[in-house]
Amino acid sequence: MILIKKTNTIAKDAHLAIITEKWKNKPNYNLDNDLADHITKQLNDPEKKFVSLNHLGQHVYIIIVDPKKDTNATNESLRKTGCTICDTINGSKGKQITIVNNTLKNLNSLALAEGVALANYQFLHHKPGAKNLNTLNTVLVVDGKLKDDQVNKLNVLVDATCKARDLVNEPVNILNATGLANAFKDMGKKAGFKVEVWNKTKIVQQKMGGLLSVNAGSVDEPTFTIMEYKGRGAKNKKPYVLVGKGVVYDTGGLSLKPTPNSMDLMKCDMAGAAAVGCTMYAIAKAKLPVHVIGLVPATDNRPGFNAFAPGDIITMMDGSTVEMLNSDAEGRMILADALHYAKKYDPELTIDLATLTGAAAAAIGHYGIVAMGNAPEKHTSKLIASGFKSHERLAVFPFWEDYYELMKSDIADMKNIGGPYGGAITAGKFLEKFTNYPYIHLDIAGPAFLTGKDSYRGKGGTGVGVRLLFDFFANR
Ligand code: BES
Ligand code: MN
Ligand code: ZN
User: Fold this and answer.
1) 265 and 369 in one domain?
2) Distance separating alpha carbons of residues 368 and 445, to the nearest angstrom
3) Domain boundary among 82, 117, 145
């Protein structure tokens, strides 16, 4: 684990990253004269915005920022620079990096620290003998304007994001639905929020037909996890509800996915669940004054013995019927029951996160989150703003009622698949039928899991959603 700390002093020979609008050597940087001269020479070129030097093993980076540039864009570029710095420091087995904010404006020096810390993540649980262990363990930040509380929140957020990445990266033979629920219990104990887990017997009693239908082909039992955090002085009268898709593995069921392509990454199909659990963890650890409920229906989706067959008619928890024409459209089946259950909280707003459709990923790639819903502007605009701040951006899709027409069935209340077009939206419209409160649906199929390294987001599980929602709740 990496720790971010505030400090006022710069050690001699420390690895240094200086953020400034204009380069000027300062006595408190503690730099060798010839090194400072070298930097000055390089930065005589006004086009040059980044200098990276290795002076007898001391790494020094100068990052020139433009105060007129958009803040969100500057922060994202700092996070990416953080990744570059993290990689080079680890490359030379360094342990610490000192960030110095020498800008006049109130620039967020923590964006650079965030990039360094998130880039330092490695998933090596199953590689005990790994030789490429990152050595970097501390990010020191020299910034007079920085408050302890900001640093603390960033440490919490990095920890929570990495926890979400771990959960996503863990394969189903290590982490099944019960394992996922246990991980949430554990996080509840550590951070201080309530966690209740329903087992199969209880899920049957509660008639969660959608969740049970997906679980029918599986040997492992399903779980339904209910998390609750009510911060001291919670400002919202009605709770926010978060719902996460917890398909711990998606084979497609009897509508089997072709391999070796689309199935390989399907351990990531619980990324929505990971985001919900780890957001609960983050807001509880940071003691945010909000009241939030987290719901996670979880199971694997397999074509085992009694697997639901295309054509089956399923009675959902709310009593409505669904003609299940494709067992690979399983996410909406389990989410529907959770969204129905959420009604009992009379939520201020419900947000679900799900790796729901290939259509969402095809539409915008891993560059953002496909969003849609019927929530009032005051909520939507805040979430969109958090998207830009965290760079977990929302692409808002239409949510017209016309799309619902595509989900109608002749022999049941609904089908579980629509037509060939608008697949991300028809899935959202299906889910909306199980709500009676302000609702936002986030399809994270694109950004949840990366097959190649993308700067500080890394490779594999990204933990997408945690930073977005933390910002949303921190700014209530
Ligand atoms: N888990 C998948 C969606 C997915 C695709 C997530 C790619 C991450 C990356 C989901 O359960 C699924 O299979 N959706 C189907 C729905 C279709 C059958 C209506 C899809 O998108 O093909
Ligand atoms: Mn599927
Ligand atoms: Zn799925």
Assistant:
1) yes
2) 10
3) 145
Q: Is the whole-model pTM more than 0.70?
A: yes
Cβ 330 under 6 angstroms from ligand 1: yes
User: What CATH code is carried by the domain that includes residue 53?
Assistant: 3.40.220.10
Cα(345)–Cα(437) distance, integer angstroms: 10
Q: Which range of residues forms the domain containing residue 25?
A: 3-145
- Could you tell me if the CB of 328 is within 6 A of ligand 1? yes
Same domain, yes or no, for 256 and 356?
yes
Distance of CA 80 to the CA centre of its chain: 17
E strand spans, 211-365: 223-230, 240-244, 246-250, 291-301, 312-315, 321-324, 349-354
User: 322 forms bridges with which residues in the sheet?
Assistant: 314, 414
Mean pLDDT by runs of 10 across the 476 residues of the chain is: 95 96 93 94 94 96 94 97 98 97 85 98 94 96 95 98 98 98 98 98 98 98 98 95 99 92 93 99 98 99 96 98 98 99 98 98 98 98 98 98 97 97 98 98 98 98 98 95
Q: Give CA–CA dist 417/329, Å, rounded.
A: 7
Vertex 308: Cα angle to 307 and 309 (nearest 5): 110
- How many structural domains comprise the chain? 2
Q: Which atom of ligand 1 is nearest to the CA of 423?
A: 19
Q: Evaluate: CB of 250 within 6 angstroms of ligand 1.
A: yes
Residue 168 lies in a domain: yes
Please check whether residues 136 and 190 belong to one and the same domain. Answer: no
Strands, E, within 251-381: which ranges?
291-301, 312-315, 321-324, 349-354, 369-373
Do residues 271 and 127 share a domain? no
For residue 257, the ligand 1 atom closest to its alpha carbon is 13
